[in-house]
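Structural biology now treats backbone shape like a language. To illustrate, our science desk offers a sequence and the tokens encoding its fold:
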Amino acid sequence: MSQYDVITLGETMMRLAPPGQLRIEQTTVFDIEIGGTESNMAVGLARLGMNVAWLSRLPENALGRRLARILKGNGVDVSHVVWAEDERLGTFFIEFGDGSRPTSVIYDRANSAMARMQPTDLPVDLFQPGMARHLHLTGITVAISDTAAATAERTCRLAKDAGWTISFDPNYRAKLWTPEACREGCQPFAEAADIFFIPIRDAQTIYKIPEDATPEQALAEFQAMFPQATIVLTLGGEGCIAVEPGKAPIHQPVFPVQGSVGRIGAGDAFIAGVLYRYLAPENPDQWLSESLLWGTAAAAFKYSIPGDMALFEHSEVAALIESAGSGASQVQR
């Protein structure tokens, strides 16, 4: 049995938000949370019962220790984190919109401890056959700095050499790089991936998929680009559609969502649900349909949870799937 089911690498930041819908200019206090797409996913997977380790680089101070303790308290192994003296933790300020005012984000992450991570910081002994089963990476790590990108590249190479499977999500952030730079920077990771996740909006922005293309046409485009990978295309309110190499596409509708206090992080919860059933399928021949079902259920549950992390229990997601019954079943096209 492997020591870990999943390893992930990335930056997690401190999140500061005015209470409710107050503007940053109005508030005298901030609610403090933590947020990072890879660690959000790791928490979701850990709470579903997977053994997950998060790799990163944190400042050796109270902020870094607080962040690590929160992740550890939610079941994520942080023992391989690199600790750096006299460095800074990336932060971001989020102002939640209401009605005509959109939610806005201000990042303060330049030269953070994680942005200065080097390939030599990786725990090479971890990347051995049998130590883990799967690696998950995103384009955010590639975008934050050249050294972080080089670290991600080495992580991917070491995982491949160790025989692990790999998933990748470009997770485009316009404040970090251009669509062209994103496509170029993400190319080697997409080519190495066994599962390639991409939202339809990123498909249109990064890969110039026409807005009037059907989901099946978009899938076909990605199958041509990355024929080795299972492609998972998320469609917002239309659910998701995915295809394994050489098989027919499978569509999964969304679960009914009540409220939207936890919209941020829902995509990370989706990936956690998908990877959970990918690594622990009830029926290996139907792993993809099972994975999409768990992914959409996990995302729907996350909508009810404030903050970035998917603080659900396995039993709660399973109960949501059970209660939805055939109304949330997959449809093959």
Remarks:
- Residues 326-333 have pLDDT under 50 and may be disordered.
- The two ends are 37 Å apart (CA to CA).
- Residues 37-89+124-332 form a domain with the UDP-N-acetylmuramoyl-L-alanine:D-glutamate ligase fold (CATH 3.40.1190.20).
- DSSP finds ten helices and 16 strands in the chain.
